[in-house]
Design a protein that fits this description.
Helices cover 28% and strands 26% of the residues. The chain has 17 helices and 29 strands. Strands 1, 2, 14, 15, 16, 17, 18, 19, 20, 21, 23 and 24 form a twelve-stranded mixed beta sheet that branches. Strands 6-5-7-8-9 form a five-stranded parallel beta sheet, with helices on both faces. A four-stranded mixed beta sheet has the order 4-3-13-12. A hairpin with a 7-residue loop joins strand 16 and strand 17. Helix 2 crosses helix 3, helix 3 packs across helix 8 and helix 10 crosses helix 12.
């Protein structure tokens, strides 16, 4: 096989597979290994694990692992065992990783949810994943108790907000973390193929689906993260990306701890807080989504006049490829900062492709080279034929980070994962002569709002419940600030005088803020193909022709 692989593109003509050009991964042969043990047992010289940007509270590595052990022991005493699901509803905090690592160390399964989700959205996830316990903060407690009145709750963040008396609160994280480890506690054997996380990806054709990732998936992801950043012991990362999301969870809540890095945690993104944290903590790495990078470029002179961000040497951008103008503009304004880009899905544990140097990022529009140990195929969606270099088709991925499948959804699993382990990404791509992946379009049609994924089908289904709407279609509308926002094309019922603001208010009352419709146009009929699928491309063309 080796001699047939083109060293330049990584393509093997005999099986039509593209192989990664990155250094191979040293995957652990020890099958009885959980991701928490894998991370905590790695040698490094780091001292501070986490810093809370708002309060300055530090968590050293020794305090972190002591707290993880205490929380794991307490959960064990509460009857949490391998395979049990535990829910975490919280904004970013330095306690978030403690909870995740403790749950996974027992072989229990962590499921996270977006704090912006509505009570209905949270209730839906709880009904699907059936957690035995939930961790949340005092501020989110009312939302959780409304979504699941009978679920036992452990309260986090009780130092800042004293706990409210509530019959469902069974403990506080603070008490659990102080628990002395017991030598005689018997641990269940956790294997690499056991499930570690149950994260919900945005569904494009209906409800979101629970993605099952194994300890093996997460361990491979951690190794890829470590190899990619060549992290020295004294690197400091700013974490504004949400920890409930695959990217935040595996990189910043868990993975980078294996390197001894320090992670400065912001509970939510705010430009001033982010920039002043870079200055205050001499941060070296900044992960962000393209709209934030664009804002840093557009306000570069004001930023450099007000903040000292000279410590910063790398920004990591994900979510959408950056244009030539943005990359060159940023390099011009911040000459000492390298732009790195990445591509991945919840279904591939956040891994897929990346650019690991400015030179690679300067292949404008690329998602980068395949991640280590990852293989790709470009497949013609109509004929199912696998295609060679420079041909456009659907990107399929295979490797150690590909999910186990969708939770309780055999049908969705078999339509996404084939019997040989290939994941159909739903992204239309080509791979060039040098092995770089270019994403042309999405088969899945998700709307990317500030890095959040918004499924149009969910909003369309909601619009159709309005008594004055006979049909509707939702499309991504391009926007410099946020990337894309949801725009609705609405067919009014005869005699209705429904207004744009009434449509927007109707949706806003029932979904998280990032899913709101921000533009409405009325149309006599929604264009569809013979099988009834909405021709979104035609509507996108119509909406953007006036731009």
């Amino acid at each position: 096989m080796e001699e047939q692989i083109d060293p330049r593109s990584g393509f093997c003509p005999s099986n039509s597979v593209f192989y990664s050009k990155r250094k191979p991964l040293p995957l652990s042969p020890n099958n009885a290994l959980d991701v928490t043990t894998f991370i905590s047992s790695r040698a490094h010289r780091g001292t501070t694990a986490f810093i809370d940007a708002a309060t300055g509270r530090h968590l050293s590595y020794s305090q972190l692992w002591r707290a993880v052990e205490g929380v794991a022991g307490s959960l064990w005493d509460m009857g949490i065992r391998k395979g049990n699901v535990v829910l975490l509803l919280s904004p970013n905090s330095i306690d978030f990783p403690v909870v995740c690592l403790a749950i996974m160390s027992l072989g229990a399964v962590i499921t996270t949810t977006n704090p912006l989700n509505t009570t209905q959205e949270i209730a839906k996830q709880i009904a699907d994943s059936k957690p035995l316990l939930a961790f949340t903060t005092p501020l989110l407690l009312p939302k959780l108790t409304k979504a699941a009145p009978s679920l036992p709750i452990i309260l986090m963040d009780t130092t800042a907000h004293p706990p409210l008396p509530h019959p469902k609160i069974v403990a506080t994280l603070h008490e659990m973390a102080k628990k002395e480890p017991r030598a005689e506690r018997v641990r269940e054997r956790v294997e690499q193929d056991d499930t570690a996380t149950l994260l919900y990806s945005s569904g494009t054709t209906g409800p979101s689906k629970g993605v099952l990732s194994s300890h093996r998936n997460l361990i491979a992801m951690v190794q890829i993260v470590l190899g990619r950043f060549h992290v020295e012991d004294n690197e400091t990362f700013i974490c504004t990306v949400p920890m409930f999301h695959i990217y935040g969870l595996v990189a910043f809540a868990t993975g980078l701890l294996a390197s001894g890095s320090t992670i400065v945690v912001l509970s939510k993104f705010e430009m001033h807080d982010m920039l002043s944290s870079i200055q205050r903590f001499r941060a070296t790495y900044l992960p962000l989504v393209p709209p934030i990078l664009v804002a840093m470029l557009n306000n570069a002179d004001a930023i450099k006049g007000k903040y000292d961000i000279r410590s910063l040497h790398s920004v990591l951008s994900g979510g959408a490829p950056l244009s030539k103008e943005v990359i060159e503009g940023f390099v011009d304004k911040y000459p000492n900062v390298t732009i790195l880009q990445g591509y991945g899905l919840t279904e591939s544990t956040g891994v897929g492709a990346s650019t690991d140097s400015l030179e690679e990022s300067r292949r404008y529009g690329t998602a980068g080279l395949l991640s280590p140990a990852t293989q790709a195929m470009i497949v013609d969606p109509d004929s199912g034929r696998s295609l060679p270099v420079n041909s456009t088709g659907e990107l399929w991925l295979r490797g150690p980070t590909i999910m186990k499948g969708y939770f309780n959804n055999e049908e969705a699993t078999t339509s996404t994962l084939d019997s040989k382990g290939w994941l159909r990404t739903g992204d239309v791509c080509y791979i060039d002569n040098d092995g770089f992946i270019f994403i042309v379009d999405r088969l899945k049609e998700l709307i990317k709002y500030k890095g959040y994924q918004v499924p149009p089908a969910e909003l369309e289904a909601l619009l159709l419940t309005h008594p004055a709407i006979s049909d509707a279609a939702v499309i991504p509308y391009p926007d410099k600030e946020v990337g894309q926002f949801p725009m609705a094309y609405v067919v009014r019922k005869d005699g209705s005088s429904l207004s744009e603001s009434q449509v927007m208010d109707f949706v806003a009352g029932q979904v998280a803020p990032y899913k709101r419709i921000r533009k409405v146009a009325f149309i006599s009929s929604v264009p569809k193909n013979p099988s009834g699928k909405i021709l979104r491309k035609d509507l996108i063309k119509l909406a953007t022709s006036k731009l």
